[in-house]
Amino acid sequence: MNSDTHIVSSFDRDLESVQAMIMKMGGLVEEALSNAARAMETRDDELAQQVRENDRAIDTLEEQVNAECARVIALRSPIAADLRTVLTVIKISASLERSGDFAKNLAKRSTVLSQMAPIPGAAIAIRRMAKTVELLLKDALDAYIQRDAALAAEVRQRDAEVDQMYNALFREFLTHMMEDPRNITACMHLHFIAKNIERVGDHATTIAEQVIYLVTGSMPEEGRIKGDETSYIGVE
Amino acid sequence: MNSDTHIVSSFDRDLESVQAMIMKMGGLVEEALSNAARAMETRDDELAQQVRENDRAIDTLEEQVNAECARVIALRSPIAADLRTVLTVIKISASLERSGDFAKNLAKRSTVLSQMAPIPGAAIAIRRMAKTVELLLKDALDAYIQRDAALAAEVRQRDAEVDQMYNALFREFLTHMMEDPRNITACMHLHFIAKNIERVGDHATTIAEQVIYLVTGSMPEEGRIKGDETSYIGVE
């Protein structure tokens, strides 16, 4: 019993540095999303540039997480729950890295949008959507740290709100494009921005599902209907 | 020496079933892409529906790969190159699963597009792009099976062609939208289809990079400039 406890806590210690990297990655991704959306709203090209440069730090952290996880596996030969934890960490860091890429792409497009006539209400709507996704990501990582399957399940449900926001924006941008062809290029960028933020929401959901897998040992059932319905939008 | 060979081949045998699953996944993803693009060109809703249904088989294979890799790690406690192989397999199957999702989305949008006036030349261009990406994916997986770093490096370079095709299509669809607002909804779907195929190309590149990592022990340098320049496209 005592030796069991010792092994577990020793393994947890081995993973401490990885957990710290994951939390740091999460913080950087939330910041990148927030700053990219703010740069877009305030047309601040310097801030957008900064977001793009900071993405490298997120990429580097993912590489470090992968290297450290490989080191821990080689060192400890974990099995069962411990092994599951390490494999989960690798997947979570991949989701965070992809989310960072999406924030970087938002920042790129924000620089282009700042040279075009603004689409009324777009920047505020995008920022609200980004804010919702930031919180989702934060809660998904909190669920991971606290091994809180209930919070993870809540994150999965809340991603539906993001999908609804996206569906509404998709229709709105389409309307702007049809009303005035001069809006088309700007709205194309806004479409891709909204889609990318929606994808970060999907990654928060993926992280939440990993947490549920970690805690319960099995992946959640397909409880939530996929909310991006825009693939089906037909002739208006 | 003899015992070394024995250990290696025993580990390879453990991975045989996983390798078979990866090849099966790759075949299913190539088929899904090909059929989705064909369904779009021939406006064949039944074929599109079939692509959507077949995606579940790809998802199931990814779960099986993950489970089998965890089993092999627990059983063999692999280190160094063997461990690297297992972790690579997990990442490759994740890339294939995502690629399958993109093919499924193409099939969904193809069903919607079949109800709209066709955009001249679009279906053929999309199918050509899909074909190029299928070959890229095939070569990336061949590089993996043969541990061929040179072929993997070639895949990375060839992904630039896909990016060029995407950039050209992006501009073309934008022109159609501006010329006639009745094209806007169809072109929006075409934009997302082209982007999704381009993303499958990125996954082929990711697989190629994993192969290079597997063979050489380090990730390739940033040798290739990111080719999707459409984030920067400004006022026409």
UniProtKB/TrEMBL annotation, chains A, B:
It comes from Falsirhodobacter algicola. Keywords: Cytoplasm, Phosphate transport, Transport. Plays a role in the regulation of phosphate uptake. Belongs to the PhoU family. Pfam families: PhoU. NCBIfam families: phoU_full. GO terms for biological process: intracellular phosphate ion homeostasis; negative regulation of phosphate metabolic process; phosphate ion transport. Homodimer. Residues 22-109, 126-211 form the PhoU domain. One of its GO terms (cellular component) is cytoplasm. It is found in: Cytoplasm. This is Phosphate-specific transport system accessory protein PhoU.
